[in-house]
Amino acid sequence: MPTNWTTYRELLLPAPNGRRAVESELRRAVRDGRLAPGTRLPSSRDLAAQLGVARGTVTSAYAQLIGEGYLTARHGSGTTVTAAVTWPATSTAGPEPAPRFRYDLRPGVPALSAFPREEWLQAQKSALADLSTDDLGYPDPAGFGPLRRELADYLGRVRAVAARPSEVVITNGAAEGISLLGRVLHAAGHRSVAVEEPSHFGGAEMLTSHGLTICPIPVDDRGLRVDVLSTTDCRAVVVTAAHQFPLGVVLHPTRRRALLDWARACDGLIVEDDYDAEHRYDRPALGAMQALDPTHVAYQGSTSKVLAPALRLGWLVLPPALRDVVVDRKRLDDLGTGTLHQAAFARLLSTGGYDRHLRRTRQLYRARRDALLDELRNVLPDWEPIGVAAGLHVVLRLPEGTDDVALQDRLARRGVNALALAGYARTPTFPGLVIGYAALTPDRLREAVRELRAAV
Ligand SMILES: Cc1ncc(COP(=O)(O)O)c(C=O)c1O
């Protein structure tokens, strides 16, 4: 009997009753060390009696595990756990469970409860019914043709992007897009890439992991300081022109022109991360910069802020000089993004389901943003919301001298997840909180604001 276990029945909980269940519980017990190497197992008759299963169930489970190398059978000494089965201690340690907050105000997450499950199911069903047998083979690494056509049309219509289907590349989220671009730029001789300061650290981390150095360029109330960019050696920059992340400002028209002039002068690349531009509440968003110079702008988008990050569906619209090399990189990485999700998304676009969902969520988020800002005006009038009425988050500028990191910690202890602006900046800016409002109802947001008040 293995130490610490009184019966095999207890050891193999939940009590297995079929061959597969006995087999997989025994396998698991060997893997996680409950059955140590060298342990002698009971006879099949004995174990069958303990587990209350037929003897044949145990003999065939033993036979299977002997065949797989987990157990060894020796004449005269019964069945033992094979000594050579060793599992690294870390392999069973999963990631730390994320703490649960009463009010989760993290930015960047849409209302996941508003995901259009029914429409997505319909889109999946009808798309699958229409796929040919050949479509179930390896995909085109550039993306599913009908989706690239739908996206070229949608992006032209909604974001004024100048895209032919052949210039659209489907990626696993915007994250893969930036990763592919980082590697292609590195291979082409780039050693540094400029990013906005403050900005989302995720993209910069990916670029760094591909050997690129990050040049942080400050952002003011007109967006990226192109004059500062021009003093660096960088020939590539990632910019959130329509709605700067996290500050929420829009790249001013004079800065757009200056940025395009910079790209032309150094034959550089602007990566336009258009991550949440469909959500503008006060007026239609400015069209994408990409159309002003498609040879110097790589446009990047994603379903993460509109539908759900779980889909991992994103896209690039690439300058002709980059298109083939990026597609080749993707082919060598993963042979292309899965066709079934792409086909369902193409169907959602072609049937107007995506536009309908956007109309619904725009209303929802606008009401949530208004409720949040109303309550803040009443309860914390010296916390100044900055940026335009857009997206899924707002930055609150806190009174000078506030320690936003200490405030974040205090709030976390009260069950409120509200992130300090300092977490997005390499150099100190002003004290602030980055508040995501899309996932909470107006009532919950009002309650959360009262928690914010109580924490100061
Ligand atoms: C600035 C920015 N760009 C892009 C993305 C989207 O990334 P993905 O499509 O990989 O989910 C995010 C998501 O957090 C983001 O914050």
Note the topology:
Blueprint lengths: L7 H4 L7 H13 L12 H8 L3 H14 L2 E4 L3 E4 L21 E2 L12 H14 L14 H15 L8 E4 L1 H15 L4 E6 L3 H9 L3 E8 L2 E2 L1 H4 L6 E4 L13 H14 L2 E5 L23 E6 L11 E4 L2 H15 L4 H12 L2 H27 L4 E3 L6 E5 L6 H10 L2 E2 L1 E2 L11 E5 L5 H14 L1
Parallel strand pairs: 3-14, 5-6, 5-8, 8-9, 9-10
Antiparallel strand pairs: 1-2, 4-11, 6-7, 10-11, 12-13, 13-16, 15-16
Helix pairs in contact: 2-4, 3-4, 5-12, 6-12, 7-8, 7-11, 13-15
The chain binds pyridoxal-5'-phosphate (PLP).
Can you characterise this structure?
The chain has an eight-stranded mixed sheet, with helices on both faces. A four-stranded antiparallel sheet has the order 12-13-16-15. It is built from 15 helices and 16 strands. Helix content is 41%, strand content 14%. The model has no long low-confidence stretch (mean pLDDT 93). With 456 residues, the chain is α/β, with parallel strands linked by helices. Strand 8 (236-239), helix 10 (253-266) and strand 9 form a beta-alpha-beta unit. The protein starts with 7 loop residues before the first helix and ends with a helix. The protein folds into three domains: 8-92, Winged helix-like DNA-binding domain superfamily/Winged helix DNA-binding domain (Arc Repressor Mutant, subunit A), CATH 1.10.10; 103-108 and 356-455, Aspartate Aminotransferase, domain 1, CATH 3.90.1150; 116-351, Type I PLP-dependent aspartate aminotransferase-like (Major domain) (Aspartate Aminotransferase, domain 2, 3-Layer(aba) Sandwich). The protein binds pyridoxal-5'-phosphate (PLP). Residues 108, 173-175, 200, 240, 245, 273, 275, 302, 304, 309, 314 line the site of pyridoxal-5'-phosphate (PLP).
